[in-house]
Amino acid sequence: QVQLQQSGPGLIKSSQTLSLTCTVSGGSLTTNGYYWKWVRQPPGKGLEWIGSMLYSGTTYYNPSLANRTSISWDTSKNQFSLHLNSMTPEDTAVYYCLSRGDWGQGTQVTVSS
Questions:
Q1: What would the DSSP string read from start to end of 48-99?
Q2: Which residues, at least 6 apart from 43, have a Cβ–Cβ distance to it below 8 Å?
C-alpha cells in the first residue's frame, strides 16, 4: 500500500497547460510491477483514464488525449506528474492519481473560458 498526495492548481484558463504532481510515499516509482495512473471524472460523468506510467518509465495514453498529454516522473523525489495542454472548459473534472487500489485525494480542476 502506498500513499499518494496530489498537488497542483485548481483553476486554470483555456489554452493553458495543466500540470499536476503526485508524490508517492510508502513505495518507490521504480518497484517492479508497479504502475502509476492518472484518471479524471467530469461533472456528472464516469471515470476517464488519461494515461499510465509503468515502473520502467514506459508510458501509455488514452488515444483521445494522447496528442496533448504527457506523464513524467522525478524518481529522486518519488513524484510523477501529468501535463495536459491546450485545456478547454470540457477538461473540467476531478483529477486523480492512483496506483493499484491506492488513490490520491483528487484535485478539482476548473477551466475558465
A1: EEEEEEETTS-EEE-TTTGGGEEEEEETTTTEEEEEE-S--GGG-EEEEEEE
A2: 92, 93
Name the grid cell of 76: 529522486
Region 100-112: mean pLDDT is 96
Q: By C-alpha distance, which of 101, 113, 112, 104 is closest to 40?
A: 104
Per-chain mean pLDDT for the chain: 96
Nearest-angstrom CA–CA distance, 62 and 7: 22
Percent of all residues in the chain with a pLDDT value above 70, rounded to a whole number = 100
